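Agenda item 2: zinc ion complex prediction
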Amino acid sequence: MKKILAIFTASCLLFLSSCALFGVKDHDHVFDGEWLCTGGYHYKACSVDGCKEVSNKEQHVFENGKCKICDYKQQSLSTTK
Ligand SMILES: [Zn+2]
Ligand SMILES: [Zn+2]
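Presented output:
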């Protein structure tokens, strides 16, 4: 019985490690996470582990000092008053 469990565990680990190696390739990208920001842009990144695919990258749409898409706060360019 213990042997069966060991084999099961081993094949499980094998499956997981092959997923880690090949799972990033050939998948439908999943852009269901939160908006991410970089500089003047917001974008969505694929939520699959290890995938760096980016989607919907566009400039912030500022309204009242905040981006209405991702809530990024507008950097005040002029502080002169
Ligand atoms: Zn992806
Ligand atoms: Zn934004």
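Discussion summary: The mean pLDDT is 80.
Owner for follow-up: CH.
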